[in-house]
């Protein structure tokens, strides 16, 4: 690294860590307003049903109940619930088990819950589809009249795919399956709404206060200025809290109706099914390759199960991670009568990379090439798949340094040809992470006493964004971190921010902070020059002091200059479209290579992850401490995805059966290995101080690395996620124990 | 949660008479780690909870002549940490140590553990299954990866308790108190198959509670162990577990009790496995044979055939620990 | 010990109409979705509600004794958060499956979501707010800050309380001891590495 940085690229504890460890951080569910009512939502028990009628009279008569809303007395479109605007706040027809049908506000949560049981809904059951296969079958029941496949197919094409396969010496084909899993963030959904006349305030648990504000205003047909969204702390989301949600609207409408503040609460069961999880997929790969190990063509045909509405794109990462001159990918989004699929940390990546990196390992094996060598040869290099030059690329360094750290060559040799029931293996995967830079804003005020107020519209979802923004401001201003206090998470007090998703905060809002800081610096030094009667060019800001370059050793405190002010020196900046290289036709990507070492007990099907190395090129690392924990957390989530997590639906009723933590089985303390994180800090010309995206990249190739390690250990290629003990045991004991089920058919 | 009244019982007599006074409407509760969950999910909706924690004396571990007495309110954590129990009954202590999480072990009781309700996701979910008075069991035609491979039908739940297999392997007895008096039975006979009662896992009548567990001191030469195989390495119910207690003399197995968890609607004693061992030396061959024999009657459903292979492996593994 | 008696009444839910009434009367909303704003005279007068079947208990939380009346179905977590204003204790699952609600009850880590408050008459409870009640941070809290053990922070109170219970029994736990003792505390940010490092550092 050539630049000299005072505050960045170090290990800095979060500026709000104290609040987080003392119980003083106030999350949405911690806000209690006088007179607040509690609301609960009634959900469809059927996967597809028209609602003939709703009788809420008994619920309304229950003492303590203040209001009941449902499709017969409230018709509001929840626009971010479906990209085609087909979703109503209270469904009719209901299209999945768990879709909201009614809501009750009452004086306490137990009364609200009891009232739900008193609402009589007359359902007319409709036929349903649950899986991709079901949905594609001839004559399948239709989720929407337009059909079960989303009209727009996601296509990408480069080169000439047929020509690519003609040039190939061999062609690989493989089919991969991944399942739906829930984000399962610790904080359950909650929303608190209060009206002051015609002005609505919502305490939301959101990754993006401005997205939330925009969506609520749109759906309730209110001017933006009348909607005030606050989120100071939120308990994780990993992509599922970035919009205005139906429960925000429900809280607002119930508050309106009851003229009281209303908090909508979710149970954990509801949280698992009513919002969204990662899309499950079926991916078919055809890959052409030559004897020398080069790839000539990659064809991906895939289906993403989007559930009952289109809430996100359903895309898959994969072909673009390899330099193949000819690529075709076609991804069909399929509708089914089950919970929606949408964003979960690096939404298109871990399931996509599981498929392509399993396939690449299989090809390497056929060619008798080492997987590391194979990737060093074929991984994306100077150009992106659409043939644009990359702004920087540290992927090969990630691969080399990761391989070295885990002891690749030696272990790979050591683990080939094992016998016995306990086997070990190592495996790897590679990934990229993009996402352009968007517009963003920041405002800085230098107060008369020399302290700084930094206003950014971010919410700190656990990524340490607030700290990152403060660090960038400190760096750009030349002031110590302690002098900066951040105002955040409130649409009335902070300027626009795009929301914390797509790992955008550092890149987008960070640039706006730098711009604002430059203006502050300029104003301050100009004022100082006038005040001190020295030349502007002779002044600089360093270590919290104004220093003279003409007279080394001479310095003034900031307050000396600003104390005569009655108001702050302030600067507000909105960066329209910060240059991420795209203005010069370039593409900016982060890169990663993951390495897993596992032990598999062939008799119990148990997989233990012994070691894990995650090497990342995210350019300059703004805060190594929080960056490392981001990667460790992302990898650990990936381990859960590889080994266990999936939401299971009963095949007949389409009712989810493991929608609770003990059924979903996220990772726990004793199973989590120490995750070694390597940062390859490449020189990146674009982005704040050369920082690239990180938060989501940490999960991209984790699943693939584990799957490939399990293959080395067992010699069995698992093409379906998650790789659970039952699958390993069945693979190890084919046919022996399968007998006819002693079935008593239902009904 | 539906509203209810909490009655703090101050004696066994009071507890059972409270239960008798509200037939069908009262339930006993110990630490509540299981029952409160059922109440929150609306699976159970008692009008009266009879709190057993307020009965003095039921939370003691006492050494008696020839046996150790365990009060039903002894917390699982206390079992896991007891030196006395560890000396005589390793299988019991090992089972206690792998139950749930420290927080649950700190409060959850031995009696509650033995009387806990199934974890079947149909029973716990919004299904009116056989166990809840409904028409059929959803498991055979449904999602049955965690269901029974032995003793199933008409309901295919698996018994979730870790302590039960261990205690049965150790030949424990249970004292039951009710409004019409006390009785002491082998714990093995406490549990009943769905063919006997499809709505309950044990023989307790609504006005009865478990008031003592008695474990006989093992004869010299007895060794015992508990092996629990989980999908998640910690804080999970057993996919399959096995408790084994073996007494050897002169290089031969004289007595064997092998009881499995996670495979059947009750803690499943495998007489087949025991027979494969009696009179023979305990070694890798006989241990494997015991596993094979135990699985001969197994009848897996669509998604749980893996439990057969897993059971074989862990029966063998557990027995090898006892050589 | 400081004694603080609370009124036996349930905190006055449903008696104030602040919020709604502020600014009322002049407001005009054009929204078709929402319907007209009611004027204050139309506003419903809300009678205070008192649940039936309250039971009197006294709890000592972080050294302060509270007398309160609780419904039998209220959990300790609910009482701490809704009625005593101690919102540092979080509820992640309300089912004994996540650990966010962990508090120390009579020296032992327990899930406050799975304890009925009526059972705890006369008991002593420590919550995360009690860790630094002397004004100084607990060494665990300091270590959590230094090792970035809190990402979103929602599991943090629970992790701290389990760690506190561990360190009060075992001053120098091994890595495995820490992992075992904290098994019952999920972290979905999956920051397990950082949490374990922090607990080990605090025990040095
Ligand atoms: C997340 C989670 C994980 C778990 N993991 C495991 C595990 O791995 N292994 C395991 O074995 N268990 C597990 N459990 C079950 C756990 O609840 C029990 O282990 C605990 O010991 C139950 O004791 P309790 O005192 O809390 O029971 P309670 O909830 O009080 O009672 C359970 C049942 O027994 C009845 N009952 C209680 N005491 C008596 C008595 N003396 N006489 C008659 N009936 C009585 C009650 O009416 C109720 O139906 C888990 C529970 C949870 C919530
Ligand atoms: S909230 Fe109590 S354990 Fe999850
Ligand atoms: S820090 Fe977010 S759940 Fe643990």
Can you tell me about this structure?
The complex is a heterotrimer of chains A (747), B (323) and C (204). Chain A contains 19 helices and 27 strands. The longest helix of chain A has 28 residues, at 505-532. Chain A folds into three domains: 17-24 and 438-578, Aldehyde oxidase/xanthine dehydrogenase, molybdopterin binding domain (Aldehyde Oxidoreductase, domain 4, 2-Layer Sandwich); 31-126 and 186-236 and 241-273, Aldehyde oxidase/xanthine dehydrogenase, a/b hammerhead (Aldehyde Oxidoreductase, domain 3, Alpha-Beta Complex); 277-436 and 584-742, Aldehyde Oxidoreductase, domain 4 (2-Layer Sandwich), CATH 3.30.365. The N and C termini of chain A lie far apart (70 Å). In chain A, the strands form seven sheets. Chain A has a seven-stranded mixed beta sheet. A five-stranded mixed beta sheet of chain A has the order 6-16-15-14-7, with helices on both faces. Chain A has 747 residues and is an alpha+beta fold. The relative contact order of chain A is 0.13. Helix content of chain B is 29%, strand content 23%. Chain B has helices spanning 12-21, 35-40, 76-81, 83-88, 90-97, 102-107, 110-115, 121-124, 163-169, 271-277, 284-295, 306-321, and strands at residues 5-8, 26-29, 48-51, 61-64, 67-70, 173-178, 181-186, 209-216, 222-230, 238-249, 252-261, 268-269. In chain B, strands 4-5-8-6-7 form a five-stranded antiparallel beta sheet. In chain B, strands 9-10-11-12 form a four-stranded antiparallel beta sheet, with helices on both faces. The radius of gyration of chain B is 19 Å and the shape is globular. Chain B starts with a strand and ends with a helix. Chain C is an alpha+beta fold and 204 residues long. Chain C has five helices and five strands, in the order E-E-H-E-E-E-H-H-H-H. Chain C has helices at 76-83, 139-146, 156-169, 175-181, 192-202; strands at 55-61, 64-70, 102-105, 108-111, 124-126. The model of chain C is unreliable at 1-32 and 35-47 (pLDDT under 50). Chains A and C meet through helix 1, strand 9, helix 7 and helix 16 of A and helix 2, helix 3, helix 4 and helix 5 of C. One FE2/S2 (inorganic) cluster sits between chains C (150-156, 187-189, 191) and A (186, 236, 462).
